[in-house]
Structure formats: structure tokens, C-alpha cells
Amino acid sequence: MIELKGISKKFGDTQAVNQVSFKVDEKETLVLLGTSGCGKTTTLKMINRLIEPDAGEVFINGKDINNQDPDILRTGIGYVMQNIGLFPHYTIAENIAVVPKLLKWDKEKIKARTQELIKKLHLPENSLSMFPHELSGGQQQRVGLARALVTDPSVLLMDEPLGALDNVTRTSIQKEFKGLEELKRKTIVMVTHDVQEAFELADRICLMDKGKIIQIGTPKELLYQPINDFARKFLAGQRLALEFKVVKMQDIWPYLPKVTLQDGKSLSADLNVWDAMELLRSSDRSELLVSGANKESKAINFEQLTKGFNQFQNEQVHE
Ligand SMILES: Nc1ncnc2c1ncn2[C@@H]1O[C@H](COP(=O)(O)OP(=O)(O)OP(=O)(O)O)[C@@H](O)[C@H]1O
């Protein structure tokens, strides 16, 4: 668990972070979202003491980090840097092994863990002897993640982990990251300025502006209960796509007709509208079966899906 209590940081006359407090539960992913310069990176770096706050306290698993040696603290926290930050003259294997070597792991243990991560992150085995410039941007990002995960820390800090990638690669790696078991076990704070990415990866989003928190909540709360005009406008440009991501089959369940298909594999009601549309688009069937609570199933086609979604939307507006 991570807890920030009223942390602030000033650089000269710039109040980079102003009285920021939040808690991140175990195994939760909190995404710091906001425009450039709003204080996201400074906030993140105060969690592993790369920057010392002027005021406030940070606790990790109940311990005040101020009472811990910064180097020891950092070896216990995974950190994915902005712009990847691999050592250019180290091979990939050497880049991944930096912290294990500091911790005096033996060679066999380092080798076994490195090979395990290479497989999990879908990097080619021969990349271990290569140098960072010989890999693609996407592969370098995976190495950056492998380096942060190598000691299996319970806390992971990620600063724009996919920032250097084109949109297509970014979207596919986001999906891959989301499915990675190692990440599901971790308490994560991640920085991004990309709204779609925040909605894809966050359990909760912390929206910031000018060093302050504007709103913290689930993606759904931010969309349907924005606290002020800033929060509303921040999401306005991509609203429909974001709604497709947060609204799930279980939300629109009451609006779906009770027509049932008897055969075919059932999809989970946890599926969001976006993924349901993708599945319908790529399926050779015009209807798919979704299973809800009490073993009830419903069939969806494009028309029913859109209708159900629109009815759900209307209800949110009128609430
Ligand atoms: N070392 C520093 N010295 C002086 N000013 C700094 C320093 N680091 C950050 N700042 C300033 O503090 C403010 C917050 O910066 P920060 O990097 O935390 O923002 P950010 O939201 O992460 O932005 P970005 O997405 O562009 O990285 C900015 O005005 C920035 O110029």
C-alpha cells in the first residue's frame, strides 16, 4: 500500500506539487493523468525519493520512506523511467541485471529470472546479447519493464512507460501489459498524459492540474460524475470512445432484449462495449451470446448493443 499525505514541492517560484494526498491499495493501479507540467512526474519521483518533498509524508506498506536509506528503498521499488533510460553500452542482459547485481544475486539466479522475463514479455532470446539500439522502440519498452520487474517488487512506479511508441504499437502493448500476471500482483502508480491509456490501464485515475489533484476516482466516476468543468472538459474530446471502454455488458443488461441464442460460447458480462463491438465485427455471426448473473444469457447484435448503450447513456444524463 502506498500513502501520500500532503506532499508539496517547489522549484524556484514554481509550485510543482501542492498538497497532494492519496492512497493506493495493494494490487491497485493508480494513474496520474494531466497535461504537461501539472506535477505528475514530480509526484511519482517523491515516492522513491528521487525528489525530496518540501512538506508532507510518504508511506509504503505502512513505513515512512523518510526513515529509509534512499538506495535501499529504490532497490525494493520497480521503476520504469520516462524515455526508457536503458544504459546504451550495456547489453540487454546487463541492463536487466543491474539491480540483482547490486543485491548480490548469484549468476544462475539472475540468468533464470532474466530468461523467465524475456519469455513473459515476448522478447526474442537472442536479444539478451544485443545492445538497446539494436531493438525496436516497443522491444526497448519491454526491456525497461523487465528491468523494473526483475526483483519482483510489490510496488511499481511507471513514468510514461509507453510514451516513446507510435499509437498502434502503444495500443497493442497496453493490451499485453494489462494481461500480464506479474503486473496484476503489483501496487502500481503510473504517469501518463494519454487519456485513452489511463482508461485502459487504471483501476483509479488521479486527475491533476497545476500541482493539485482535481479528482480521484474510477474511470467511470470521472466520466459520469466529473467534479467540475476542468474534469468534464479534460475528457470531452474523446468521450464516446471512453464510454465504450467503461460501460460493460452488465451495465446495459436491463436494456438488452431477452432473446436467447441456445448455442455458442458465452462471453462474460464484464466485457465492455468496445470489445463487444470488436468481437461482433470480427465474428462470422451477427449475434453473440453473453452470460449474466443467475445463469441467464442474452444475445447481442450491433443494433441491440447500440440501443442498450444509448439507453444507459440517457439514464446517466438524467440521474
Ligand atoms: N528539476 C526541476 N527544476 C525546475 N523546475 C522543475 C523541475 N522539475 C520539474 N519542474 C517544473 O515543475 C512543474 C511540474 O513538472 P513535472 O515534470 O512534475 O510535470 P509533469 O506533469 O510530469 O509534466 P510532463 O508530462 O511534461 O513530464 C513544471 O512546471 C516543471 O517545469
Automatic annotation (TrEMBL):
PROSITE patterns: ABC_TRANSPORTER_1, ABC_TRANSPORTER_2. The keyword Nucleotide-binding applies. SMART domains: AAA. Keywords: ATP-binding, Nucleotide-binding, Transport. It comes from the Bacteria. SUPFAM superfamilies: P-loop containing nucleoside triphosphate hydrolases. GO terms for molecular function: ATP binding; ATP hydrolysis activity. GO terms for biological process: quaternary ammonium group transport. The keyword Metal-binding does not apply. Residues 2-235 form the ABC transporter domain. It holds the Pfam family ABC_tran. InterPro entries: AAA+_ATPase, ABC_transporter-like_ATP-bd, ABC_transporter-like_CS, P-loop_NTPase. Belongs to the ABC transporter superfamily. This is ATP-binding cassette domain-containing protein. It comes from Pedobacter kyonggii.
